[in-house]
Design goal:
Blueprint lengths: L12 E5 L8 E5 L31 E6 L2 E6 H5 L5 H5 L15 E4 L7 H9 L7 H7 L7 H10 L11 H27 L4 E7 L5 E5 L10 H11 L2 H6 L1 H14 L7 E6 L5 E7 L4 H6 L12
Helix pairs in contact: 6-7
């Protein structure tokens, strides 16, 4: 299990700290272990993933943690926001007797791995969300620690990380692609309603952008909507992959024919071509006549006098 993440030890670590802007990221550089190759310090940036307003520094002091020989400055509120972790418990107001800083005001953990703790620092700075460790590794090539090192630090500091967490962001990205794809199809339907088109057809191909037709009766020669293509094309590019995989296709069709159904007349059909190089998504009965004609102004009951 002692697999090296391919990270170096010779640089200063820059850990996230707060800024007055809710969307900016700030950092403070702290020295790492001295390297035989160079006595100068480099710096790297750990992105600040938080996006909400930070408390004022008067009531939310920086806590100086020296893990191994690396110092991390983390806001008190960040630590206490994770009460089930060791540091969250240690720095809660009810456990002030556990808070015994050194004469320099630092809390020292000399036997721990400061390199691996960079992941935990990012966890606290991101409201309890683990960074993508692999992306973190490539973004911070000066750190060096093994998976065992990381798991040991998580175990010691009681931070809930497992190897399965490595793949969470990938699944989140897939879910986001499905949601964006559904939103794009709904947008096509919305634009069809705006243009009083009862039929919308989308073709998903293997190596090309989707093609969209809006029409009153399914006549593809009548109109292809460049507005629709421009707006939703980036999100429709996943369509071929989703249509080709049976379970994804079933999930998407179920959402469109139940939760997102635009009218009682709505019919949805998916048709592949013979060599499986494209799929057509045909949607008809889009217009809800009751809603559509109910919006028309009422006609007078008697004929107007000539």
């Amino acid at each position: 299990m002692n697999q090296d993440l391919g990270l170096d030890t010779s640089a200063a670590l820059t850990v996230p700290c707060e800024s007055n802007s809710p969307t900016s990221s700030a950092s403070v550089a702290v020295p790492a272990a001295k390297s035989r190759r160079s006595s100068s310090f480099n710096s790297l940036t750990v992105p600040n993933a938080a996006s909400h307003h930070h408390p004022s520094t008067d009531h939310d002091p920086l806590i100086a943690l020296v893990v191994g020989n690396i110092r991390y400055d983390i806001r008190l509120s960040r630590l206490t926001s994770q009460p089930d972790t060791m540091l969250g418990t240690m720095f809660s107001s009810r456990n002030s007797d556990l808070q015994k800083p050194s004469t320099t005001g630092e809390y020292r953990f000399p036997e721990r791995n400061g390199q691996a703790f960079a992941i935990l620092a990012a966890f606290y700075d991101s409201d309890g969300r683990f960074p993508d460790v692999i992306s973190f590794k490539y973004a911070n090539p000066h750190l060096r620690f093994t998976w065992d090192n990381l798991l040991d630090e998580c175990d010691y500091f009681q931070v809930p990380f497992t190897i399965a967490s490595l793949y969470t962001t990938a699944y989140d990205a897939t879910q986001a692609r499905i949601e964006n794809f559904l939103n794009a199809i709904v947008r096509v339907i919305q634009l069809a309603i705006t243009d009083l088109c009862d039929v919308a057809e989308v073709r998903f191909e293997t190596h090309a952008d989707a093609v969209v037709w809006l029409s009153e009766d399914g006549n593809r020669g009548e109109r292809q909507s460049p507005e629709v293509l421009y707006e939703v094309a980036p999100y429709l590019r996943s369509g071929y992959m989703f249509m080709r995989h049976e379970r994804f296709r079933a999930k998407i069709l179920d959402a469109l024919t139940h939760q997102l159904k635009p009218s009682p007349r709505f019919i949805l059909v998916v048709t592949p071509n013979s060599d499986d190089t494209w799929y057509d998504l045909d949607m008809s009965g889009i217009l809800d006549h009751e809603l559509l004609f109910g919006m028309l102004p009422g006609l007078p009951e008697r004929p107007l006098a000539e």
